[in-house]
């Protein structure tokens, strides 16, 4: 007798503080569920291999590549997307820093850059420049705005540590 895998699975996901009960394909990735079922467009589909960073989300506060995570494997865990960090009226300090530094050109990589930076600063509020480079090294930017992105992270660190009062979030 051959064991069969169900084509659809009922799952419960907690995304941005809200619990969702969904029925998804057994092979559905977290990225597919976030974008297609929950309408969250912060995480982007880039490479589909977990190598470019465009799909980065936080899973229990840790930056993770949602394109390679089976949706069923993150039940019971706290998932945060770019939309869950902050909003237009109250952006997260990393979002504010990226806006202030004008760290976007096409914007495709920004989700990954911001989510990776926010996870880094949550665990290390005083990262060295090399620690920032190491954390962001797996996030690809096709437009070449790396200088502006690094400036935005520097501003976020300053905002977090109150070392630059003119950069209030």
H/E topology pattern: EEHEEEHHHHH
Helices and strands: which structural class?
Answer: alpha+beta
Sheet-strand content, in percent, reads 15-25%
User: What integer is the average pLDDT?
Assistant: 92
Under the CATH scheme, which class of the largest domain?
Answer: Mainly Alpha
Key traits:
Ubiquitin-like (UB roll), 169 residues, 2 domains, DNA polymerase, domain 1, alpha+beta
Question: Could you explain the architecture of this structure?
Answer:
The chain has 169 residues and is α+β, with helices and mostly antiparallel strands. It has two domains: 77 residues, Beta-grasp domain (Ubiquitin-like (UB roll), Roll); 82 residues, DNA polymerase, domain 1 (Orthogonal Bundle). A five-stranded mixed sheet has the order 2-1-5-3-4, sandwiched between helices. Strand 3 and strand 4 form a beta hairpin. The radius of gyration is 17 Å and the shape is elongated. The termini are far apart. The C terminus is likely disordered.
Helices and strands in order:
Layout: E1 8-15, E2 18-25, H1 30-37, E3 56-59, E4 62-65, E5 78-80, H2 82-85, H3 93-100, H4 110-123, H5 129-136, H6 146-161
Parallel strand pairs: 1-5
Antiparallel strand pairs: 1-2, 3-4, 3-5
Helix pairs in contact: 3-6
What's this model, at a glance?
The chain has a five-stranded mixed beta sheet with strand order 2-1-5-3-4, sandwiched between helices.
